[in-house]
Specification:
This protein has 279 residues and is α+β, with helices and mostly antiparallel strands. It contains ten helices and four strands.
Length: 279
């Protein structure tokens, strides 16, 4: 399967997950929502139109505006989601499910998780959900303001427009869903790429280096260091490893040098390169 086809399938699945969240969890419980879907929800409160049709119209207008002002690259990355998202919603609206839970809290959690997973898949594949992002990017182009701050400001305005149609509980649950969306989206975007960085300080650095390279089949970098108190020169080892190897390597370090000092930290993403080892 080609890399391009995998990307398209990922974007399609992402839009389907967002459509499920909105159709089966957000709309039945009247939860507030930001972005172009939130704008569409305001319109449907004022005019009895199918939400999928309104989303298509709103995204279409924003897409054309973005294509004219932001150029071809933006249009190419956005056009698929502009069509796929409302199309998935229109299909889901015909299903006789109504809503999948009677608990508003559970609906907010499911909606946030699904929207976060869907948006993460779209962004991970290099796509764009379009929508209110267009407004933020246009404002950034002319005002040079921070895009994240602009997106938050737009979402606050969109949510404020839904207040006359929502009660306090629906607003709180909507904010909960948006918070979960951000958390899950960030996790999905680095899913499968997360590694652990191990920084090792030891007088037995050569033995530890050899073990990491030959026994653990992991890469390691030797860094010249100078101790801050004694001003003594030495070597530190830096290794980025899969999480499953962490315990084994820690046990090995302790057995080689019980006085060794190490620091463990998260690595969100790592680009590997193939190295040929000398015999």
């Amino acid at each position: 399967m080609s890399h391009r086809l995998i990307k398209l399938l990922s974007i399609a699945l992402g839009n389907a997950l967002v459509a499920v969240a909105v159709t089966f969890f957000i709309v039945p419980h009247g939860l507030v929502l930001g972005g172009s879907t939130g704008i569409s929800l305001v319109i449907t409160h004022l005019a009895p139109l199918p939400l999928s049709l309104v989303v298509l119209a709103v995204n279409g207008v924003l897409f054309l505006l973005g294509a004219l002002i932001l150029g071809r690259h933006f249009a190419a990355s956005t056009i698929f989601s502009t069509i796929a998202y409302p199309l998935a919603m229109s299909v889901l609206e015909t299903l006789p499910f109504g809503h999948l839970t009677d608990e508003p809290m559970l609906a907010a959690v499911c909606a946030g998780a699904l929207m976060g997973a869907g948006t993460g898949l779209i962004l991970r594949a290099g796509g764009s959900s379009g929508g209110s992002d267009v407004i933020a990017l246009i404002a950034h182009k002319y005002l040079h303001a921070n895009v994240s701050a602009l997106l938050w400001a737009i979402d606050v305005c969109v949510i404020a427009c839904q207040l006359p149609f929502s009660n306090f509980e629906q607003v709180l649950l909507g904010v909960l869903a948006l918070t979960l969306l951000t958390i899950v989206m960030n996790r999905v975007m680095v899913m499968g790429r997360s590694q652990v960085q191990l920084l090792i300080f030891s007088t037995e650095h050569e033995a530890i280096r050899e073990n990491i390279l030959r026994e653990q089949d992991a890469g390691v970098t030797v860094i010249p260091i100078e101790q801050g108190y004694t001003r003594q020169e030495g070597r530190a080892l830096l290794s980025v490893i899969p999480r499953r190897k962490l315990w084994t390597i820690r046990e090995m370090i302790t057995s080689v040098d019980p006085t060794a000092f190490w620091v463990i930290s998260e690595v969100s993403e790592m680009r590997e390169r193939q190295l040929r080892r000398r015999a």
